[in-house]
Amino acid sequence: MNTHRLVTLWLMPVLLATTMTAGAKSAAIQRKQLLNTEWQFVENDSDFTRARAVTLPHDWSIHHRFDEKAPAAAAGAYLPTGRGWYRRTLTLGKAYEGKKIRLYFEGVYMNACVYVNGKKAGGWPYGYSSFWVDATPYIHIGQNEIVVSVDNSQQINCRWYSGSGIYRNVWLVTTDKTYIDDWSVAVRTPDIHHVELTATVVLPDGATRPLKRTIEVEQPRLWSPDDPYLYKIELTIPEGDCICVTYGIRTIDYSADGGLLLNGKPLKLNGACLHHDNGILGAAAYDDAEYRKAWLMKEAGFNAVRTSHNPPSEAFLRACDEWGLLVIDEAFDGWREKKNDHDYATLIDRWWQRDIDAMVLRDRLHPSVFCWSIGNEVIERKKIEVVKTANQMASRIRDIDPQQRPVTSALAAWDRDWDIYDPLAAVHDIVGYNYMIHMAERDHERVPERVMMQTESYPRDAWRNYQTVQSHSYILGDFVWTGLDYLGESGIGRYYYEGDVPGESWERPLYPWHAAYCGDVDLTGLRKPISLYRSLLWNGGTTSMAVREPDGYRGKVKTSMWSTWPTQQSWTWPGWEGKPIDVEVYSRQPKVSLYLNNQLIGEKETHEMKASFTLPYQPGILRAEAEGESAELQTAAAPSSLRLTADSYQTLTFVTIELVDAQGRVVPTADVDLNFSVTGNADFLGAGNADVRDDDPYFNTTHRTWNGRALAVIRRKAPKGKSTITVSAKNLPTARLTVK
């Protein structure tokens, strides 16, 4: 057996966070303090007399109206970009005298320059990399001014919505002049019972010394998606610096004949690709929104995600550690040949190694990260120079990741050429196939030791891809495009109607489409029927059903490459009485019976874990039964109220608004305009629906329901206190929800 073995124990820095004043007494100084509050921001003008107060994370683009003429165009969700300046006063007391003072930026999009007291202290061009700024030479006791300039004016620089600004957390990190380099922490595990922890100690003169600790674990509890168990330990040095780390223990084996083994057990990857935005919140990476995003994927039945096409937030990886999601951590969308005029091709020669280092050094301690990806569908893939680029990146990763995780990238072909990519594929430990897994059997005959996974696939091919993965040991899994609807790439995955602008999203502008509709989960967090079906294939579960929108109900339906047919879990189709309508029943049982108003419509054997029925539509109760399992849909009456449901995290609360009848059934056909207000200990962040053609801006305190549903997000202002969100609509009782 040609096997690659990874035995790992992971240690991840815990964020010792506080919002304490930086001038507190020495004993109260935290090593890492969150600097998200008290910022001033000004857009397209460096005059801070016109600034407004903002709290990080902050994405200024999402606070604009959609604009068909925006320079970022369809790729950037038709939202403005430009330049911005941030300023914050930092007051340091005597306790900070003689300390090492660093600023840590988790992400600034893009071309960030950081100034401390008027002098440039650092910066970073690639908007998805985290970076450090040593402020020690420029800072003093008393008041200090931090200014961050951000330039996202050169468009188009990204193929999806990037957002603009300091969209991730910022930290003040304070240590003595002798300290542990945060990103130097690494592990080597000879076996699961012995862990060697290494780090680098930085001395006052800039010299370094190694730090090594050995840990014995007598009865390790192994990390897995089913049991994401984490341990904690403190790493200290005699001079006093201390980093608290969290770790999980797991093993990975992968081979063409053995497949993927996690902790010695076979595992197939049911994966989702994800872009980095948070829907109606834009690119702002609130910790709670990142945790919710990971949870939505876990709840949808996925056991893995691919962070396409950039490193994610730290909060997202922590959530994957805690929820139990395996991660392909991806660095870049493209390399030396551009996909857009101002994309990473303008940076790669000077920055690729620093950006690779930033990803791997930051993320190599997460148990969730099982694979590194160095690229996606690179344009120059037919040139022999591409092999050199791939070798450089893969070699650098292997040099700085002691656990030697596998390296991949997503390969694709837009013509008949495929075999010519063999030299490029050979650079990778696992070869990523974008929409090309139908070539797997032939490739296996030609290169029998190759290990593969489909790094992107069409949502509609759920059954075929499930069967392909299950039937071939050398195919580790499938990652659908995508897990969640996302901003930008406007119109991909859409269905539309005859008479609408035809074609695919890359062929012509499709405004007001401003987002992608190819996700298993929509922008409000609701699982689409394709998600129910996919999870049934991979995870089992009970029978469910959905109804295909009749062709002609709203118009003659047209689909696109990444779309599925418009389908809802609804039996409310007024005006279609007596006309044929298609019902899909998803079940692992061999036979399914369908009833309408207690009358048997028919019985069918399932094929591909699905049974389809066609019947004349009549209101009432539709029920599917399959060997003790059942699913039911009921026709809704006229709307009578608004139902508010809270999904609360530490700081954010996501409020789902549903238009319901007197029996509490969602009414998908009588959408209304909603008005939002928030009082008490919270601010209104945004509201929206899942209709990615609705160009009402997300910052508005008014928004319409779509298919009977909308979403609002509020943010807590202080640690204690309660807040109330009020939602009103014409001719309906006002609804209120109090969050403590």
In short:
By secondary structure, this protein is mainly β. The chain has an eight-stranded parallel beta barrel, surrounded by four helices. Strands 5-4-6-11-8-9 form a six-stranded antiparallel sheet, with no helix packed on it. The chain has a four-stranded antiparallel sheet with strand order 1-19-20-21, with no helix packed on it. Strand 48 and strand 49 form a beta hairpin.
**What structural class do helix, strand and pairing data support?**
mainly beta
CATH level-two architecture of the largest domain: Alpha-Beta Barrel
Summarize the biggest pleated sheet. Answer: 8 strands, parallel, barrel
Strand content: 35-45%
CATH topology of the largest domain: TIM Barrel
Q: Tell how many strands the DSSP assignment holds.
A: 49
Instruction: Give the CATH level 1 class of the largest domain.
Output: Alpha Beta
Oligomer: single chain
Helix proportion of residues, in percent? 10-25%
Low-confidence runs: 1-26
> How would you name the CATH homologous superfamily of the largest domain?
Glycosidases
Distance between the termini: 57 Å
Tally of contiguous helical segments: 8
Mean pLDDT: 94
